[in-house]
Automatic annotation (TrEMBL):
<dbReference type="InterPro" id="IPR052016">
    <property type="entry name" value="Bact_Sigma-Reg"/>
</dbReference>
<dbReference type="InterPro" id="IPR001932">
    <property type="entry name" value="PPM-type_phosphatase-like_dom"/>
</dbReference>
<dbReference type="GO" id="GO:0016791">
    <property type="term" value="F:phosphatase activity"/>
</dbReference>
<keyword id="KW-0378">Hydrolase</keyword>
<protein>
    <submittedName>
        <fullName>Phosphatase</fullName>
    </submittedName>
</protein>
<dbReference type="InterPro" id="IPR036457">
    <property type="entry name" value="PPM-type-like_dom_sf"/>
</dbReference>
<feature type="domain" description="PPM-type phosphatase">
    <location>
        <begin position="166"/>
        <end position="381"/>
    </location>
</feature>
<dbReference type="Pfam" id="PF07228">
    <property type="entry name" value="SpoIIE"/>
</dbReference>
């Protein structure tokens, strides 16, 4: 008999949940199977069902399902009537948290071996859901509590994911306003020995900002994939943006390249994203040489700087929409408030730390309708074992 993974791979993209229900009923006696996907704002977990309607969402940070999602570990809920167990299993693909698989089992069936088997099944299902997005809109639609703006649609398709994890590092990132994001973007790529991470803030709002950022990120990727240095990547993107906009619009970008073996970081600060490092209980801003944003002037030259990260370090990058947001009374969010949130969230994983910064920003602003896009990227550095 084919393995569960093989049967999931063979299933039509739209039929993954139905296939999962059948397989788990046959193999562990599952009575009910529900796939919950995190919405774009990371506020709720949305059941995947018959579109355009989904089932009732559940909180992404409360209750058994929320605990499984936040803590990234299985949570077993005891049911009284009818007697049984509801097992909540986190679904993540290479560090990108997608949602939770909820499996209802008969009483006495949720033994440790079965829960372990269900966890492996949830991971396999997550990989298939990620792959299915290339062939169906079902899972992208199921994640939405409301319609995305066109600019937001473009930006979410441009992003690599909302997280990434390897032996050397863990990345978590968050964007707001999630359903109306325009010009903010984060991007990363890793090979055997290096990680390249960029955070870009395209000038303007809405579709204009989205088009500008798409051009800048596309140019950076093109240069990166050609094997150019970090400074040359910035130069090529600068030329591409200036050729299109003639200096009337530009994109602020922070480029970082990590040597995974040594922890040496090469940086180019082309604009206004700010970089902080947490080490040994202290939070400090890493001051880099401020250089021109991409596309501001014709044929700008960029220079690289270096610094080092050590195992246990946390790096946080925040866009202009974070460190320059004001409250209704005109008070700047500022570095002091940001440092407080970063200190309070130090024990939390990177995904939750990034979300907490944006939540603090919204509280400071007094409304979820932010005046500017806000992007936060949090990276925990573990280093490569010797």
């Amino acid at each position: 008999m084919p393995s569960a993974e093989a049967q999931l791979r063979a299933a039509p993209p739209h039929a993954l949940v139905a296939t999962a229900r059948r397989l788990l009923a046959e193999r562990v006696g599952a009575l009910e199977v529900t796939l919950l996907l995190a919405d774009y704002g990371l506020t709720v977990l949305q059941p995947v069902s018959h579109l355009p309607h989904t089932g009732e969402p559940v909180p992404a940070h409360e209750g058994p399902a929320g605990s499984a999602f936040v803590q990234q570990r299985p949570v077993v809920e005891i049911l009284r009537e009818p007697a049984g167990h509801l097992v909540h299993l986190p679904i993540a693909v290479r560090g990108d948290r997608l949602g939770v698989l909820c499996v209802r089992l008969p009483a006495g069936a949720a033994d440790p071996d079965t829960v372990l088997q269900l966890g492996e099944f949830a991971t396999a299902l997550g990989h298939e859901v990620s792959t299915a997005d290339r062939d169906t809109d079902l899972y992208l639609q199921a994640r939405r509590t409301r319609r995305l703006t066109l600019a937001a649609e473009m930006q979410w398709q441009l992003l690599p994911a909302r997280g990434s994890a390897r032996e050397e590092y863990v990345i978590g990132a968050h964007l707001e306003p999630a359903y109306a994001i325009g010009g903010d973007n984060f991007d990363w790529s890793a090979d055997a020995d290096h990680l390249t991470l960029t955070v870009t803030d395209g000038m303007g709002k809405g579709i204009d900002a989205a088009l500008l950022t798409s051009l800048a990120v596309g140019a950076l990727r093109n240069a990166r994939r050609a094997g150019l240095t970090l400074a040359d990547q910035a130069c090529l993107a600068d030329q591409a943006v200036h050729a299109q906009y003639g200096g009337k619009a530009y994109a602020s970008t922070l480029l970082l390249r990590f040597d995974l073996a040594t922890g040496t970081v090469t940086a180019v600060d082309a604009g206004s994203p700010q970089l902080f490092r947490q080490r040994d209980g202290h939070t400090e801003r890493i001051d880099l040489e401020a250089q021109f944003p991409l596309g501001m002037f014709e044929e700008s030259e960029y220079t690289e700087q270096t610094f080092r990260v050590a195992p246990g370090d946390r790096l946080i990058v925040v866009s202009t929409g974070v460190h320059e947001t004001r409250s209704a009374q005109g008070e700047l969010f500022g570095e002091g408030a940001l440092r407080q949130i970063l200190s309070a969230t130090r024990p939390a994983p990177p995904h939750e730390a990034a979300r907490a910064v944006v939540s603090g920003l919204i509280e400071h602003h007094g409304s979820s309708e932010l005046m500017s896009d806000a992007a936060v990227v949090c990276l925990d550095w573990h280093g490569r074992p010797r």
